[in-house]
């Protein structure tokens, strides 16, 4: 074959998988969802299930009172609200107790020693009395009927867990465009999750709005970083279904800096990589779910390596076989993509608006986060306990 031929094959392989992940997989999902899509549950189908909302909080003094008030105002309101104070060093515990005193069905559990979110979730679940457990972050504010849309999905007895839609509020200043990238990312994710849910293959959930039947709940293993991914995949692997409720919406303020957002994504990615080594999350007996998991989540981890391999191999092809004009074209397109990412970085730094450049910048930054997460794992860095980004 020769070096040029090998490099050409590698270029096609790397670019093909990137194209499949970013474009073809969502398109295929969208088409399948239109053909196979199930009927949306109606408000009249809401089952009468006792509901416990569990809010895990560490140093959330600035938002915990608002979060409790938001939870009490939901329609329907949770039958029980449990706030787990996970070793906060600020006034979270005091403020939470003051806010909870107005409602008898709100209890605050103090966990003096910080153990991380997964330990706090286990702590709260052990005290819960609900038939459905709804896990939420303190910084997430639910729309008034979010719980109604979550519970409607449980009318199907095969459904073990349901996730809502995470939205990011616009940035506070014109110079901070992080929220625009975050919002674009979550709209893209929502489309994929909505399509996966329609064909019965939901493999992604958000921990800020994740409901699970108490009978399907299993305590999170020690050291779990991605609690939402573990709950989703282990539930699927046991033969239960997971749904996405797009009308169950929660809102969060955008991160105040790109550095904070990248640190968050590094932590999530590191947790996802480590999760692959746990046999209980692999849905080997469910081919459609396994295909969605490989396409949506596993392939994403390989993207930065495919990106690097694709452009390096492409350069080698053009260098050794300049007459192969198709590869010259793919190289130009890749360079344009990297150029747009660089322009997006500059736009982010200067507060300028350029949606296309920002999109390429976000993709490149996400892939950089994966590389950094791999390095973090290699050097033994722990993300079990982490500081929340400023909002």
Task: Report on this structure.
The protein is α/β, with parallel strands linked by helices. The protein folds into two domains: 2-21 and 296-378, no CATH class; 40-292, Alpha-Beta Complex (Spore Coat Polysaccharide Biosynthesis Protein SpsA, Chain A). The chain is 52% helix and 15% strand. It has helices spanning 2-36, 64-72, 92-100, 117-127, 146-152, 178-198, 227-237, 258-275, 287-320, 325-350, 355-378, and strands at residues 51-57, 80-86, 106-111, 132-137, 141-142, 159-169, 209-213, 241-253. An eight-stranded mixed β-sheet has the order 3-2-1-4-7-6-8-5, sandwiched between helices. Helix 2 (64-72) links the parallel strand 1 (51-57) and strand 2 (80-86). Helix 1 runs antiparallel to helix 9 (287-320) and helix 10 (325-350) crosses helix 11. The termini are far apart. The model has no long low-confidence stretch (mean pLDDT 88).
The helicity comes to 40-55%
Question: How large is the share of residues in beta strands?
Answer: 5-15%
CATH topology of the largest domain: Spore Coat Polysaccharide Biosynthesis Protein SpsA, Chain A
**Strand arrangement, major sheet:** 3-2-1-4-7-6-8-5
Task: Write the CATH homologous superfamily of the largest domain.
Answer: Spore Coat Polysaccharide Biosynthesis Protein SpsA, Chain A
What shape does the CA trace take? globular
- Please identify the top-level CATH class of the largest domain: Alpha Beta
